[in-house]
Design a protein that fits this description.
There is one protein chain. Helix 1 crosses helix 7 and helix 6 runs antiparallel to helix 7. By secondary structure, the chain is α/β, with parallel strands linked by helices. The protein has a seven-stranded mixed sheet with strand order 5-2-1-6-7-11-10, with helices on both faces. The protein has a two-stranded antiparallel sheet with strand order 3-4. Strands 8-9 form a two-stranded parallel ribbon. The N and C termini lie far apart (54 Å). The protein has two domains: 202 residues, Class I glutamine amidotransferase (GATase) domain (Rossmann fold); 103 residues, Arc Repressor Mutant, subunit A (Orthogonal Bundle), CATH 1.10.10.60.
Amino acid sequence: MKTVSILVPETAILAGIVDPRYMFTAVNEFLRAAGKPPLFHVQLVGLTKEVKLNGGLFTIHTDFLLDEVKKSDLVIIPPISGDIKSALHINREFIPWIREQYKMGAEVASLCIGAFMLASTGLLSGKKCSTHWLFVNEFRNMFPEVIMVDDKMITDQSGLYSSGGATSYWSLLLYLVEKYVSREIAILASKYFVLDIGRNNQSPFMMFKGQRDHEDELVIRAQEYIEQNFQNKITVDHLSDKFGIVRRTFERRFKKSTRNTVVEYIQRVKIEAAKKSFETTRKPIYDVMYDVGYTDIKAFRDVFKKITGMPPVDYRNKYNKDAVSF
């Protein structure tokens, strides 16, 4: 029997507590139906016996207080909400407990922006982690020692797991079921919960909003210029000349501020515009390609797939119900 401790922090998102509990208890029922003993002992663990969430709209009754739980096999950290730094401060007593559980052999999984709490333990230093794409820049600023992989739905390193944005934590839960039980039961769970098994990329869901959380005014002006003129051919030399700065210095400052090279930033702005066009218009792919400043269809397809994880035609067909043929 494996003990799964689902944490119930203040400011937690309710679904991130209820859904993992539902998953592991359902798997126990699948095992019973197959004539096998249940595998998981699932418990809710908090700092108090009752935790009010969503401004008091919901109350979670925990099974155990933090200091009553001596040993876990798997610790689940749900997403937290509100101001991240405030949420981490309010729930700071969980941090040493998570570290101690990991030291004693427990594995730890963070769901969505629960990654901030996992990173606060220091256990992710030098390791890969995923979180909701909308919070990637904030995460990188707070935890520069962690390798953020913003396109991944799931990371798995040294018994530490993380998931991407929002409901992608279901993919991590299926992944854990397969690891702890079997592929067969994971497939059964995916069918029961009507989930796609094997999803590992959140790139198609990401929306690029240029990184402006820095104080380099020259780079901000360059970003604004790129975003206002992405339809045109923009080169690094053109930008360095326009803003009166040596190319090498410009590239270094741009990468430091935005975490993208200049070329990557230009590509991401163009592809974000293309994505919006595919989602909201009936334009053929060639027209969209020209609208965002590409003239080479192969180059456009390659960059689009690199950034979104799927070819242009697949993206359009997925997000535009009125999609026209290529």
